[in-house]
Amino acid sequence: MTTAESATTLDGTAFLFPGQGSQTVGMGRAFYDDWPETRAAFDHLDDALEIDLPGLCFDGTAEAIQRPSNTQPLLLATGIAVYEGVTAQFGVEPAAVAGHSLGHFTALAAAGAIEPATTAALTHRRGECMERAAAADGPGTMVAVLLADPDAVAEVCATREDVGVALYNAPKQTVISGTTEGVAAVRERLEEQTTARFRELDVGAAFHSPVMASAVDCVETAMADVELCEAELPVVSDVTGECYTDPAVAQRDLTAQITSPVDWVAVIETLLAQGIERFVAFPPAGVLAGLVERIAPEAECWALETPADAREVFA
Question: Does the reported pTM lie above 0.70?
Answer without folding.
Answer: yes
